[in-house]
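Intended use. Records such as the DinB family protein entry shown here are meant for training and evaluating sequence-to-structure methods. They are not intended to support clinical decisions.
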Amino acid sequence: MSDHPERWTQATVYPDMWTDPDDDPRDSEGVSPDGELPTLQDFLSNYRLTLRMKCEGLDAEQLARRSVPPSPLSLLGLLRHLAEVERDWRDWITDADPLPKLYGARDADFEGAIADPAVVDAAYADLAREQAATDAALAAHPDLGERLGKDGIAVRELLVHRIEEYARHCGHADLLRERVDGRVGQ
């Protein structure tokens, strides 16, 4: 008996994909968005969906399962981390005092990712709330060249940084999911 699950995919059309095109909620068919802002928003939306897809169908124990010691990395930790990061990004675009941390001190987002359904539900709710709040704050600034906050960060830079953060963590989610139940696919 091995603790390494057998690799598998749900896709039948393209065996290296996560799911079949007709079942994929990411809109990859048709014409791409026109303009820089809609393009950036589309990429961000698709990475957010990808992260959720990598977590679908798992129970609290599977979501909280750590990668390899000593790392506290888990899918649940990624959900919590990205909620914390969304909140932090709002601090970048304001001159106000920073918002309080959602989960506490450094790495508390990962360390507190325990196999408890209530923690899972809270993580999903926190992430949705923080994404919506950051999206709303940025919607007031459609000029990608506008500089915001104490450090004068450009809206474009913030959007690209958000895409980079989700893309990097979707790569982590690929590996974490494969370790949990063997499911693979881009």
